[in-house]
Design goal:
The chain is an all-alpha fold. It is 70% helix and 0% strand. α3 packs antiparallel against α5, α5 crosses α8 and α8 runs antiparallel to α13. It is globular, with a radius of gyration of 22 Å. It is a multi-pass membrane protein. InterPro entries: DsrP-like (IPR054823), NrfD-like (IPR005614). Belongs to the NrfD family.
Length: 411
């Protein structure tokens, strides 16, 4: 009963913490709520009329929703880049940021699942993916593997930080034998969620654009570039607007991780371009469409070349130590890299895999207003969830939320 009583106080204090704040905080949360409601309104329109209101067709059946899903799986996996040095290598400076990274992982995984629901046409079809009820088809279907790794990683990233924060809230020291096994498991699981997603694409034999042995490793490289890049932007923002002391050394160390991952990702991009264009075959036609256009169809051209340009500029600048260690320049470069990878993993990977079709038909894809609105709503939901988790975690870390104080005041 005492645990339930503490849990009740924990929930009550968390609710009180997230409902109070500065004017800027309330404007931020209100803005996210408006965007979420607008996205929900357009999702209701999609539910009523079906996927016909999207830009997807029977020829290009994955669009903006799956593009964001693929990208966000990588962002979620990037939390391991903080978990590994903080808990396993026991680097103290990373522990200041690890809860932020795991909170980001939770938010992005919820967004991933939301994008899958949106792409399926409605939540009523989810029962097909429930083991024992629907046609789960495990272990033959890679989609079922994806369901397992995503939900498993979400469970790990909820329970581990929750245990740590719950113990700190009570003024107790977390027991390493309780959470360290989960930390080790989450490290391997993080790699697994991105590898399984890459295998899902690689296994589609009718889509030669994805039949690339580098797809899995490049997924990881781009994930470990974009995810920590976003974490850096968040940490610098938190440092500016709160009393949470995120050290400059922590941010610079994460910046080094971003730089190395971005360099590897760029090398793999050059390797793929060499493979596609040095000795092109008929299987290179999707790459030709993506990078140069085909038969006058050039919808993806500005997207992919913007991505490559941002990628090269950001990676080159990050390689220069003076620029990377400048905390005013670093978030700008991280923002450029984040956008570059978002385009690369979306319009640069998913859509061209369907163009041209198996019979050579070129049907271009352009997202509709409904898709864009629902996408913005899901991103706003992720930001809303992350803000709540981060605000609660920071309050506990700073000692603003402590169970003993509440208990004494109640007596």
């Amino acid at each position: 009963m005492s645990i339930l009583r503490v849990a009740g106080h924990f929930i009550k204090d968390s609710f009180a913490e997230v409902t109070r704040g500065s004017r800027a905080y309330h404007i931020w949360m209100a803005s996210l709520t408006v965007v979420m409601l607008f996205g929900l309104f357009n999702y209701a329109n999609q539910l009523e009329h079906g996927l016909i209101v999207t830009g997807m067709t029977d020829r290009v059946s994955w669009g903006l929703y799956i593009s964001n899903f693929t990208f966000l799986v990588g962002v979620a996996a990037a939390a391991v880049m903080l978990v590994l040095p903080a808990y396993i290598l026991d680097k103290i400076d990373f522990k200041q940021a690890v809860l932020i990274g795991e909170g980001l992982a939770v938010a992005t995984l919820v967004m991933c699942l939301a994008f899958v629901v949106a792409d399926m046409g409605g939540p009523g079809r989810l029962w097909h993916m429930i083991p024992g009820i629907g046609v789960f088809n495990f272990p033959n279907s890679l989609l079922t593997w994806d369901v397992i790794v995503l939900n498993g990683y979400l469970f790990l990233n909820i329970t581990i930080p929750l245990y740590l924060l719950f113990m700190i809230y009570q003024g107790k020291t977390p027991k390493r034998k309780v959470y360290i096994p989960g930390v080790y498991l989450s490290v391997f699981w993080a790699v697994g969620i991105h590898i399984v997603t890459a295998f899902l694409y690689q296994g589609l034999q009718a889509r030669p654009f994805w039949n690339n042995s580098l797809l899995g490793p490049r997924f990881l490289a781009s994930a470990f570039a974009a995810g920590p890049a976003l974490i850096i932007i968040i940490l610098i923002t938190i440092r500016k607007f709160t009393r949470f002391a995120v050290g400059s050394l922590t941010i610079k160390n994460i910046g080094l991780i971003v730089t190395v991952a971005a360099q590897i990702n760029l090398i793999m991009l050059v390797s793929e371009l060499f493979k596609e264009f040095y000795a092109p075959t008929h299987h290179s036609i999707s790459a030709v469409y993506l990078f140069f256009g085909l038969d006058g169809k050039t919808a993806l051209l500005p997207w992919i070349w913007t991505s490559i340009g941002l990628n090269i500029v950001a990676t080159t600048a990050l390689t220069v130590h003076k620029l990377r260690n400048n905390l005013k320049v670093l978030p700008v470069l991280c923002g450029m890299l984040f956008i570059a990878v978002w385009i690369e993993k979306g319009f640069g990977l998913i859509v061209p895999g369907f163009i041209p079709g198996p019979w050579g038909k070129i049907t271009e894809y352009t997202p509709t207003f409904t898709e864009i609105s629902v996408t913005l709503g899901i991103w706003a939901m992720g930001a809303f969830i992350f803000t709540i988790l981060a605000k609660t975690g920071i309050a506990i870390e700073l000692g603003k939320m402590v169970y003993k104080k509440n208990r004494l005041s109640n007596n």
